[in-house]
């Protein structure tokens, strides 16, 4: 449960804040532990981001909240595997946007504006983001006085007037795609500006899958919150459930038993492998290499059947519980898992050379959709998208949590930032994950599966961070006076990987979009909430 | 190239009858769908899948229908890119309000006679999300629905059973 937080950089940062005129009203290392909490006045909000950016801190999210009738905002900054939550509790003035210093903040701040009415000053983009036409600009759907059912009557009109950026000049044309796509894909809109086949610019318009997750979380008990968290993004059910558990358990001062955290890691890593197998299949399919598509879909199906046999659910939904897990592994099942791993390793040993030695496949993947390291770092890219561009961050290694503190996992890294690199990082991660699983299962701790739940004190709050298969998930939870959820904010890594797609697609041709998109595979649902 | 062909040969055709305990065999369901496809749909059934706001869990399992284990194209079932080409809409939910107009338009763009199947607990009844300021819940709250396939998400076999049941009733 304890992270490897050291915060040896914090004194220098606090000195910089002080020198920069930012008042720190409170500095709390207990309330959100292992994260550190700083309270600052709203008037210093923007200045703080400027100093944080100059100090090289990574921006990891912003969310608003309402406590005792007061609107407040919190942002998460990360550095060297430590997490710092900064909060402005009294919004006496409109806070300055963090986006001028951190491009990653742009969309999350628009989300907070659309759902809470937070009116950022100096925000570079005044347009709505998560809001389409289901509520009005004046509404704040997440505010306590806004009814869960909303105020809308009749059919919801399409968001026809959204002001997309336009390309000017002869030869430029526009290609609108979605929200319903040609394939079996989540809903979202892509607006291409192209000259001939070459993409000048891609603009994403998301929010179509917005289903009010943050609103309907309020008032749930921990079990029901977990069901919801497991459906934030269906392909990442274990990741989001684990992050939500961690946040709730930290709020309640509960430590899940070692066997439970071990089993959570087994589930999370099986989820990673299942998704990577599907993505490898999808990437190959998008460039017409159907052999690999069928081979990797075959391996994925076998893997999912293993999930169903051993854990009762193909996608591993609802396997976690607040304080523990709902599943266990008998000794025979562990032997079976070792066997799964051996079979998959043998298959990959045979298949991987067929991918790497296939010139026509590599020709399509190498040099396609390049995301430069500086761009990835500036956008705060996470998971395999960041790591394929040399952004070397992995929560499992850099902010260790059980069982990764005892069972380190090797982080895959590449530098080229193209589709081939994002494919390679996935393949390397499958290998490293198999090694990790074998080591963990050989020494899976015995004992209880469940720590007894105790109702957190009124207002207790916690943050959870896990390295889900797409990358870091950050989850914030606050309890009310009856032990129910007062605030739930799950920040999927897709928030920071979607903007990367807009960048890496530039100067590629329109037909390369599917493979570039698949290589990023950001979640619509996890982003839209 | 030799290695690729060799791998294909050694793996062979794995689209064999799969018989989970106490469930009718995939082959049986598939063959019955194929018969209906031959009699009523000129040999093939065209499905347009619409994600109207789901968590993407249902989509993963619908995708699996095209993997070599289920390989539904052998039964005459295929997924099409446009509602104009579709006999059947497979709609997952809950229907977000932001997808309401797009779903209605997709329904209108699908030629008659058409079938609509609401997939998953969310599509069938709103599931974990229900009705809210952002969600309309069940697909039937937005467009006429002929059949539902429950599950969170339904397995590929359950999807095929549900499609067969809906076709049999039509």
Question: What would you note in describing this structure?
Answer:
The complex is a heterodimer of chains A (529) and B (170). The two termini of chain A are 27 Å apart. Chain A is globular, with a radius of gyration of 23 Å. Chain A has 529 residues and is of the alpha+beta class. A five-stranded mixed sheet of chain A has the order 1-2-5-4-3. In chain A, strands 6-7-8 form a three-stranded antiparallel sheet. A three-stranded antiparallel sheet of chain A has the order 11-12-13. Chain A has helices at 10-19, 45-54, 105-116, 213-216, 222-229, 237-252, 258-286, 290-311, 331-356, 359-365, 373-379, 383-387, 395-398, 419-442, 494-504, 513-520, 524-528, and strands spanning 26-28, 36-39, 58-67, 70-79, 82-88, 172-177, 189-195, 198-205, 320-321, 324-325, 461-468, 471-479, 485-491. Chain B is an alpha/beta fold and 170 residues long. Chain B has a five-stranded parallel sheet, with helices on both faces. The chains are: A alpha+beta (529), B alpha/beta (170).
Descriptive terms for the model:
heterodimer, A: 529 residues, alpha+beta, Beta Polymerase, domain 2, Cytochrome-c3 Hydrogenase, chain B, 2 domains, five-stranded mixed β-sheet, three-stranded antiparallel β-sheet, 17 helices, 39% helix, globular, B: 170 residues, alpha/beta, Rossmann fold, 6 helices, 5 strands
Write the layout of secondary structure elements.
The complex is a heterodimer of chains A (529) and B (170).
Chain A: H1 10-19, E1 26-28, E2 36-39, H2 45-54, E3 58-67, E4 70-79, E5 82-88, H3 105-116, E6 172-177, E7 189-195, E8 198-205, H4 213-216, H5 222-229, H6 237-252, H7 258-286, H8 290-311, E9 320-321, E10 324-325, H9 331-356, H10 359-365, H11 373-379, H12 383-387, H13 395-398, H14 419-442, E11 461-468, E12 471-479, E13 485-491, H15 494-504, H16 513-520, H17 524-528
Parallel strand pairs in A: 2-5
Antiparallel strand pairs in A: 1-2, 3-4, 4-5, 6-7, 7-8, 9-10, 11-12, 12-13
Helix pairs in contact in A: 5-6, 6-7, 7-8, 7-14, 7-16, 8-9, 9-14
Chain B: H1 2-11, H2 26-40, E1 45-51, H3 57-64, E2 77-79, E3 88-92, H4 100-109, E4 115-119, H5 120-125, E5 147-149, H6 156-169
């Amino acid at each position: 449960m304890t992270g490897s937080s050291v915060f040896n950089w914090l004194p220098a940062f606090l000195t910089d804040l002080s020198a920069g005129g930012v008042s720190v009203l409170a500095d709390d290392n207990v309330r959100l532990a292992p994260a550190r909490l700083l309270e600052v006045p709203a008037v210093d909000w923007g200045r703080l981001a400027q100093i944080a950016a100059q100090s090289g801190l990574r921006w990891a999210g912003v969310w608003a909240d309402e406590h005792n009738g007061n609107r407040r905002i919190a942002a998460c900054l990360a550095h060297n595997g430590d997490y710092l939550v900064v909060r402005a509790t009294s919004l006496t003035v409109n806070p300055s946007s963090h986006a001028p210093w951190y491009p990653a903040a742009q969309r999350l701040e628009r989300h907070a504006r659309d759902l809470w009415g937070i009116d950022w000053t100096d925000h570079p983009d005044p347009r709505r983001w998560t809001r389409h036409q289901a509520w009005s600009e004046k509404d704040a759907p997440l505010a306590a006085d806004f009814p869960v059912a909303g105020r809308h009557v009749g059919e919801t009109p399409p968001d026809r007037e959204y002001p997309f950026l336009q390309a000017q000049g002869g030869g430029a044309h526009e290609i609108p795609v979605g929200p319903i796509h040609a394939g079996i894909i989540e809903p979202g809109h892509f607006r291409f500006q192209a000259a001939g086949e070459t993409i000048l610019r891609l603009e994403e318009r998301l929010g179509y899958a917005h289903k009010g997750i943050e609103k309907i979380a309020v008032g749930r008990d921990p079990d029901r919150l977990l069901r919801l968290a497991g459906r934030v993004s269906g392909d990442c059910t274990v990741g989001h459930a684990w992050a939500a558990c961690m946040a709730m358990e930290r709020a309640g001062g509960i430590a899940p038993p070692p066997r439970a955290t071990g089993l959570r890691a087994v589930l999370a890593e099986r989820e990673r492998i299942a998704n990577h197998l599907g993505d490898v299949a999808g990437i190959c399919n998008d460039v017409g290499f159907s052999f690999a598509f069928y081979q990797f879909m075959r391996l994925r199906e076998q893997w999912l059947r293993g999930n169903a046999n051993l854990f009762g659910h193909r996608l591993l939904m609802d396997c976690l519980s607040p304080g523990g897990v709902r599943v266990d592994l008998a000794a025979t099942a562990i032997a079976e898992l070792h066997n799964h791993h051996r079979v998959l390793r043998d298959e990959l040993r045979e298949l991987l050379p067929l991918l790497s030695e296939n010139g026509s496949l590599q020709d399509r993947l190498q040099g396609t959709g390049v995301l430069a390291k500086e761009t990835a770092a500036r956008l705060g890219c996470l998971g395999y998208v960041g790591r394929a561009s040399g952004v070397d961050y992995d929560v499992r290694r850099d902010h260790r949590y059980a069982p990764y503190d005892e069972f380190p996992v090797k982080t895959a890294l590449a530098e080229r930032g193209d589709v081939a690199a994002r494919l390679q990082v996935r393949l390397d991660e499958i290998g490293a994950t198999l090694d990790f699983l074998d080591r963990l299962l050989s020494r899976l701790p015995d004992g209880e599966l469940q720590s007894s739940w105790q109702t957190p004190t009124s207002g207790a709050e916690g943050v959870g961070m896990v390295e889900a298969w797409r990358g870091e998930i950050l989850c914030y939870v606050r309890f009310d006076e009856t032990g129910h959820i007062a605030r739930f904010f799950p920040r999927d890594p897709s928030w920071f990987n979607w903007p990367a797609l807009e960048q890496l697609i530039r100067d590629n041709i329109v037909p390369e979009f599917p493979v570039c998109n698949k290589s990023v595979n950001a979640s619509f649902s996890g982003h839209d909430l | 190239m030799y290695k690729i062909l060799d791998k294909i040969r050694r793996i062979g055709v794995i689209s064999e009858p799969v018989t989970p305990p106490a469930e009718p065999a995939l082959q049986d369901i598939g063959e019955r769908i194929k018969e209906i496809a031959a009699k009523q749909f000129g040999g093939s059934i065209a499905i347009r899948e619409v994600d109207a706001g789901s968590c993407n869990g249902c989509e993963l399992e619908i995708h699996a229908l095209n993997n070599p284990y289920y390989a539904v194209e052998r039964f005459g079932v295929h997924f099409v890119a446009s509602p104009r080409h579709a006999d059947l809409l497979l709609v997952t939910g809950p229907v977000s309000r932001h997808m309401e107009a797009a779903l209605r338009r997709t329904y209108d763009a699908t030629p008659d006679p058409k079938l609509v199947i609401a997939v998953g607990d969310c599509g069938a009844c709103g599931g974990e999300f229900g009705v809210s300021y952002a969600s309309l819940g069940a697909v039937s709250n937005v467009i006429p629905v002929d059949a539902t396939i429950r599950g969170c998400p339904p397995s590929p076999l359950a999807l095929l059973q549900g499609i067969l049941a809906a076709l049999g009733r039509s």
